[in-house]
Fold this protein.
Amino acid sequence: MKKYCYQNSRRQFLRTTGTLAAFSLAPTMLVKAFPIENAIPQPVPKEKITLLVNGIERSAEIDGRTTLLDFLREQLGLTGTKKGCAMGQCGACIVHIDGRRMNSCLSLATFNNGKTVTTIEGLAKEDQLHPLQEAFVVHDAMQCGYCTPGQIMSGIACIREKRAGSREDIQRYVSGNICRCGAYQNIVDAIASVQESGKTV
Ligand code: FES
Ligand code: FES
């Protein structure tokens, strides 16, 4: 038993000192592999873009890595479009690009140079809400409201693309829009009511 313990602790000792030696060598090896000038962040070249956002031409010079979502929210101040997951899984950031719905967190702003973008802020006409915005109020289709802009943009696309023929079709189409408050039935009610009304969306 004693022998086993001795061997065990000796093995542990060697493992520990080996690991420490590796860590102490690592910085030297890293500096050799990546000279210090490579470690200094280089300025990112700016790219000029022009988009038609909610009917207004918007031009800016931006870091080419900027997503459309961040461009809309942080540079244009259009914070109605929400950032949920920032990885294409919740639908909170959906906008329309050239009339088609898109997760704006998944698209670089520069990819949309010259395109037409509509956000939730671009739906109402002065004091007149969009029919689907009205339906969301009538059908109480929101609780905290965080997912609502994405749900509405998705719902409009669903009707425009003629995919709102039944509740099941609507549910399938908007299944990428997550509502943490669980207002799903009311959201489908709202979309179905606009579809049945025949109003232009
Ligand atoms: S923030 Fe874009 S899909 Fe979640
Ligand atoms: S209303 Fe709260 S997340 Fe949908």
